[in-house]
Amino acid sequence: MALDATTITETGRPAAPATGGMTLQRFARRRSTIAFLMALPLIAVIAGLVAWPAGYAIYLSTLNRRMTSFIGLGNFEILLDSETFRMVIWQSCIFAITAVVLKALLGFWLAHMLHHIPTKGQRVWRGMLLLPWVVPPALSTLGWWWMFDPSYSSLNWLLTAMGGPSIPWLGEPGWARASVIIVNVWAGTPFFMIMYLAALKSVPDQLYEAAAIDGATGWQGLRFVTLPMMRNIISITVLFSLIVTFANYDIVRVLTNGGPRDLTHVFASYAFQVGVLSGNIPRGAAVSLFMFPLLATVAFFMLRGVNQRNREMA
Amino acid sequence: MAQVSIRKVVKEYEGGVQAVKGINLEIDDHEFVVLVGPSGCGKSTTLRMIAGLEEISGGEIAIGGGVVNDIPPRDRDIAMVFQNYALYPHMSVYDNMAFGLMLRKFPKEEIRRRVENAAQILDIKVLLDRKPKALSGGQRQRVAMGRAIVRDPKVFLFDEPLSNLDAKLRVQMRTEIKKVHQTVKTTTVYVTHDQVEAMTLADRVVVMNHGVIEQVGPPQELYHHPQTKFVAGFIGSPAMNFIPTRLVETSGALNLELSSDIVLPIPEDRIGRYKAHAGRELLFGIRPEHMTEVRPNDHRPGLASFHATPEVVEPMGAETLLHFWKDGHEICAKFDPGVAVEPGVRTPMAIDMNRMHLIDPKTDRVL
Ligand SMILES: Nc1ncnc2c1ncn2[C@@H]1O[C@H](COP(=O)(O)OP(=O)(O)OP(=O)(O)O)[C@@H](O)[C@H]1O
Ligand SMILES: [Mg+2]
User: Residue A62: pLDDT band by 50, 70, 90 thresholds?
Assistant: First the structure.
């Protein structure tokens, strides 16, 4: 259809004759313009709080220690050469992946238990189980630190009372790494639980009934109906948690402060260590930037799966 | 393939609601039985007890001879089609249909053969790779049926499978279901609140009301010989007219006195049946299709005539419906569309008294 002089705009009124391109009036009336204007405050906030710091961090990471000259990728090269930093990469990955897997499994189990208790009792349990997630992590970690403390560890007291060994929770590298994961799992599981519970509630009962009639046992129902129906929520929750856990700072900082011998450091705590405590801000920035490509790759693949399933399913 | 026996079955939900109050029903092998009744009468509950989705509070249900009260749905060898289809959204049409067979560990080849065969019957071969989201309502309905057919179960259960479809598609799928049943001949229990569906599909119709069975019988029998006022009013569309009347005996003949000006003679062959009730206040039941225009050459015995003034005239195409009010009761008559009728004009009408029913208002039973 050819555009003639009296094209009708989206508002239904005849537009001004389209001479010499778009008039300002017409531009202001377009829907996309209005949408952009309405989203502008949010765009400004994101630019100010996300884009600018990120850009600035990239800029910082290319400077030398005194921040006086540009050294390109120098900081990154030095980091990759350093034994300690390679260990931090490993530890971050092990920490994040183990913690997320444990949180996902435990969260799923808890969500399932909750889903099957009647609505009345459910609210109380839900509230109690959410507590670890609601308490400020620095505080609760401090509590854990006490329980792990070598001289008056309540956990060890319990263990020895039951005839078990006394465990050097934070002193021995293996146990220290485990402790960090335990606390993170404790604090993060409720998030998974609540997300999964919502997902479970969104699966129509009739699908389970159809599956039961089709011959599925409880397990088969879980495997062939529940899990596939929850895949998107699982993906998004895992991704979200992976990002947060990877960038976890407070638990490591409070519990072990990276020790023993820097063996429990993750990216964020190490970045703080290098950048603030040792005063090499550009290198600290470089440390924290290492997370970005790793997470971006994971996010890309997971979100692609989510999008695809969204298109195919309801 | 199997019979289904329902013996004194009771369903009581928590809180004391009795949804089903001790019903008995024997369903034969290959039979197509339709449970019909108004909303909330316990049809779905009955069906779900047969399926095993709802526990049985009392009595017993047997499928193929064996009592199934304590057998879980997966071991009852039944297939069910749900009102909203309940297709697995994450599986393709093929997988939706194959799922039950896969769980039962059928060989791959056999699964393929059965799914393709069912797809052939239902004409959904081209849809096998799609996900349910990409199907229309009617296509989803077919897939849901396919899922039941491939299993070749002892019994098919349908819970209002057509109520989410538009009127035209509903008629089409109704025929389809009938065709499928004639092909596979599996014993079928079908729930609907639509009496037209019930009449067209059923070998036998079970009319339920308030958790009890009012009457069981072939469609024609229910139409011609309803046993209760409820069945009389429920089966047939538009519904049967009920007019309060008095049965009077005058010198050996029985008459219905509808009002001082309308007196209708009872056909001779019915006199013996009604004689004992002479002098009582009863309900006169007559279907709209048996109240017609006066046809000049029709001299069958038992035709009575009277005059009434229709207030609303509804031309339906194949027929014209006339509505008039008599002592506060709405009465409907069905005229040939060729007869010109005007609202507000006094019109002669013929009543086929051979098709009349008399109902005892105390017991609501048809006399
Ligand atoms: N889970 C339940 N708990 C308590 N009462 C219920 C439950 N399910 C159904 N009922 C009650 O049982 C009665 C019968 O319900 P049912 O679903 O069998 O009706 P229906 O005949 O299928 O009606 P419809 O045509 O509306 O589907 C209703 O009064 C309903 O309120
Ligand atoms: Mg129902």
Answer: confident
Whole-number average pLDDT of chain B: 88
Mean pLDDT of B101-114: 91
Cα(B265)–Cα(B253) distance, integer angstroms: 8
Choose from B80, B88, B114 for mutation: most chain A CBs within 10 A: B88
ω before B265 within 30° of 0 (cis)?
no
pLDDT band for A4, please (50, 70, 90 cuts). Answer: very low
CA distance A269 to A88: 10
Whether the per-residue pLDDT at B235 is higher than 80: the answer is yes
- In sequence order, what are the residues at sequence separation of 6 or more whose Cβ sits closer than 8 angstroms to the Cβ of residue A234? A104, A196, A199, A227
CATH fold of B4-234, please?
A: Rossmann fold (3.40.50)
Q: Which residues of A, range 201-220, sit inside 8 Å of B by Cβ? A: 204, 206-207, 209-217, 220
Strand, coil or helix: B261: coil
Q: What ipTM was predicted for this assembly?
A: 0.82
DSSP conformation class of B363: T
Would you call B194 helix, strand, or coil by DSSP? coil
The pLDDT of B74-99, averaged and rounded, is 90
Mean pLDDT throughout B169-195? Answer: 88
Report the topology of domain A81-313: MetI-like fold (1.10.3720)
Q: What is the DSSP string of B68-111?
A: -TTS-GGGS-EEEE-TT----TTS-HHHHHHHHHHHTT--HHHH
B22: left (phi over 0), alpha (psi -120 to 50) or beta: left
Question: How many whole angstroms separate alpha carbon B158 and alpha carbon B174?
Answer: 12
B55 pocket-lining for ligand 1 (C-beta < 6 Å): no
pLDDT value, residue A314: 58
* Whether the predicted pLDDT of B1 surpasses 80: no
Q: Could you count the other beta carbons within 10 Å of the beta carbon of residue A62?
A: 17
| pLDDT > 60? residue B161 | yes
Instruction: Specify the pLDDT at position B124.
Output: 87
Between CA A111 and CA A130 the distance in angstroms is: 11
What is the rounded distance in angstroms from the CA atom of residue B101 to the CA atom of residue B94? Answer: 11
Answer yes or no: are the C-beta atoms of B196 and B237 closer than 8 Å: yes
Helix (H, G, I), strand (E, B) or coil at A71: coil
| Tens of pLDDT, residues B343-356 | 888 888 889 888 88
What's the CATH number of domain B241-366, 3.20.190.10, 2.40.10.120, 2.40.50.140, 2.60.120.260?
2.40.50.140
- Report yes or no: A211 and A220 within 8 Å, Cβ to Cβ: yes
Q: Which atom of ligand 1 is nearest to the CA of B37?
A: 21
Q: Where are the domains of chain B?
A: 4-234, 241-366
d(CA B340, CA B145) in angstroms, rounded, equals: 46
Please choose from B18, B36, B41, B208 the residue to mutate so as to test ligand 1's pocket, defined by most ligand atoms within 8 A of CB: B41
- CB-based contact A192:A240 (threshold 8 Å): no
The yes-or-no answer to whether B4-234 and B241-366 have a common fold is no
B43 in contact with ligand 1, CB cutoff 6 A: yes
For residue A207, give the chain B residue with the closest CA.
Answer: B86
Q: For the ranges A5-19, B194-208, B242-256, B299-313, which has the lowest average pLDDT?
A: A5-19
The domain locations on chain A are 81-313
Phi-psi category of A200—alpha, beta or left, where left has phi over 0 and alpha has psi -120 to 50? alpha
